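As described in the Methods, two query proteins were run sequentially through the folding procedure within a single session, without resetting any intermediate state between them. The first query and its resulting structure tokens are shown here.
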Amino acid sequence: MTGTDTAAEDRVFAALANATRREVLRLLRERGPQAVQILAEHFDMRRPSLSEHLKVLRDAGLVSEQRSGRQRIYRLEAAPLAEVQDWLHPYERFWRDRLKGLGELLDRMPDDDHP
């Protein structure tokens, strides 16, 4: 992995680390492209603060912005999320194997329901 790839990956993970930004992504996923004014209605913060969150998401490649007159419309860009999923997959497999092993161990243990 090159330094550029690592920097891009770091931006995506940093963007996802914030609950407000994850909520913006959820809203865009569930409701499709939205104007910043519509997104702002979902948050108890001033528009400049939301704009900063949107900038972080844009810089990470997680959203794109399109101007329509005076409005800015934001759209989810899911490709960086697929890269996160690819990164997480070995860990999911690790935990699935661990839980399977725990389940097998518990199945072999005698029940203690007799007094």
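Immediately afterward, the second query was submitted; its sequence and tokens are:
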Amino acid sequence: MSEPQTDRTGAVVHVALDETRAVSAYTVRLDDGTLAGRADFVDPPGVPGERVFFHTEVAPEFGGRGLAGLLLGEALADSIRRNLTVVPVCPLFAKHLRKHGDEYTARGGRVRRPRPADLALVGETVKDRGDA
């Protein structure tokens, strides 16, 4: 998906889109393939061009390395490339957009606030994968 990136420790990491799991996600992996984090999303059925991000997580042992920022940055860049409107349900994603949203929209990104239907969709998605 993207070129290899370097985290705050100087380690090479890779961000990729993983649509093979029950819930699609952007993932960040170390150079050796170890999964360090993910940003889960769902594309609302019947609403083309939108992506609802609802959960972002970096494993605690990889904290402080800037991986969440790299992960969210690439998810947003890919959303621009795909011409998608981002709907940030995830608090970390929303916080990232509050800080970097002007830059994101200046590059052509689109964001809209979550609606009750988005929250219901997330609830169904999480329930369907067995997390409820």
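Residues 11 and 30 are 8 Å apart (CA to CA). We note this only descriptively and draw no conclusion about the first query from it.
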